[in-house]
Structures are given as structure tokens and as C-alpha cells.
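Q: Please design a sequence for this.
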């Protein structure tokens, strides 16, 4: 059902498609941001992979993979580094109204 105000008509599907497009663009930007941050932290940046996976509930999971010997640097002492990553994701989630979560593990394919 389109809203009609005289000669001005609004198609609700336009807003839905635009929102989905903006969400896809923003998750790609967040994925690129985390790729740059993670590559800057490790000794072997060529062994790093970051993927974003959209879940059926609308959230996005960032899967960060690295060589097994690099995982300690990404997790940090007592999980401090990974907690910092999650804090950054939380701030991004609030501004973009998109839920993000982080999964750190060995190489992902």
C-alpha cells in the first residue's frame, strides 16, 4: 500500500530496499575496518581473514580467522583485546542500529 499525498506518492518497498542496501554497505565497511585493525596487530597479516555472515535474525557475525600462533595476540591477556573489539562493535551497533557479534578463531574458509 503506497501513501498518497496529492502528487507525492511513497512506496513502502522503496524504504525497505534502501534500508537493506544501507545495512549491507555498513556491514562491509565494518568488516573492512576490522580487517585493517586485525592485520595491524599480527606478525603475519597475510594469514588473516575477516568475513561477515548475515544471520536469519538480522544480526551480522564477524568471523576473524588467523594463524594459530597469532590467536593469542587477537584475544589478549585475559581476553582484554577481544573485549575491546567487542566494545567497538557495540558502539557501531548502537549508531547503525544493526547487531554485530565477533567470532575469533583459527583460519576460516
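A: Design:
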Amino acid at each position: 500500500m503506497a501513501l498518497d499525498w496529492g502528487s507525492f506518492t511513497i512506496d513502502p518497498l522503496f524504504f525497505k530496499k534502501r534500508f537493506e542496501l544501507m545495512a549491507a554497505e555498513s556491514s562491509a565497511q565494518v568488516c573492512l575496518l576490522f580487517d585493517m585493525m586485525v592485520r595491524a596487530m599480527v606478525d603475519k597479516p597475510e594469514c588473516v581473514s575477516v568475513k561477515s555472515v548475515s544471520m536469519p535474525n538480522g544480526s551480522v557475525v564477524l568471523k576473524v580467522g588467523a594463524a594459530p600462533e597469532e590467536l593469542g595476540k587477537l584475544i589478549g591477556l585475559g581476553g582484554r583485546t577481544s573485549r575491546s573489539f567487542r566494545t567497538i562493535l557495540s558502539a557501531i551497533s548502537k549508531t547503525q542500529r544493526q547487531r554485530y557479534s565477533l567470532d575469533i578463531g583459527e583460519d576460516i574458509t
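Q: Thanks. Anything notable?
A: Residues 12-41 form the longest helix (30 residues). DSSP finds three helices and five strands in the chain.
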